[in-house]
Amino acid sequence: MLSLINSGYIYINSIYYRPKFSLKAKTNMDVSLLRLRKEFEDVGLPEFCKVKFNTETALDNDTIENLCDTSKLDLDNISNCFVVVLQPKEGIWTDKTLQFIIRVPKEYPFKPPKVKCLSKILHPNIDKLGHVCINIIREDWKPTLTISIVICGLLNLLIEPSNSDPFNEFASILFESNLSLFKSINRSLY
């Protein structure tokens, strides 16, 4: 039988052991931030993606250009709210810079992150206020999913918009009926 004792000892089969490692966290971060930090350390982010922590507003072009490579993220300053900059290499929004804010709840990974698009965009799965409709942050959410998977899901929506469950009815109808006008409107938003 194994049990943890508040004093730092472990009780195993009627014997108390004092482990060489600390049983207490070495940081003040809550569990959601520890998980987030671990995700970024282990997996990182795709090359088409940049992240800016500790911000809730859209970034200007100079700030985006100066964002570091995702392999050099400052994980000591990780926060539960950050901006993700995506630059798809294919699809309607090829080489466009699109920004999303991701808010990670304290209950993460048991509750999904909230995602909002900060860029002006006409998209079947993004409403006029920027709310994003993607199944993996709604009914398909599981604690085993990660922020990297959410970001890849966002990229997938940009490459292949889905009309099966539209969040923006006007954009969905226009995308289906007049793709050239749909593309023209999106070009005018940049």
Question: What is the element layout, followed by pairings?
Answer:
Elements (H helix, E strand, L loop, with lengths): L1 E3 L5 E3 L2 E3 L13 H12 L6 E5 L7 H6 L14 E6 L11 E6 L10 E4 L29 H13 L9 H9 L1 H10 L2
Antiparallel strand pairs: 1-2, 2-3, 4-5, 5-6, 6-7
Helix pairs in contact: 4-5
Helical residue percent band: 25-40%
Residue-averaged pLDDT: 80
CATH fold descriptor:
Ubiquitin Conjugating Enzyme
The CATH class: Alpha Beta
The class by helix and strand makeup works out as alpha+beta
Number of alpha- plus pi-helical segments? 5
| Name given to the CATH architecture | Roll
Oligomer: single chain
Per CATH, the superfamily is: Ubiquitin Conjugating Enzyme
User: How does the overall form come out from the CA principal axes?
Assistant: globular
Count of extended strands: 7
Main β-sheet description = 4 strands, antiparallel
**Widest sheet: strand ordering:** 4-5-6-7
Number of domain units: 1
Distance N to C terminus: 62 Å
Order of helices and strands: EEEHEHEEEHHH
Organism: Cryptosporidium parvum (strain Iowa II)
Active site: 133
Protein name: Ubiquitin-conjugating enzyme e2
Family: Belongs to the ubiquitin-conjugating enzyme family.
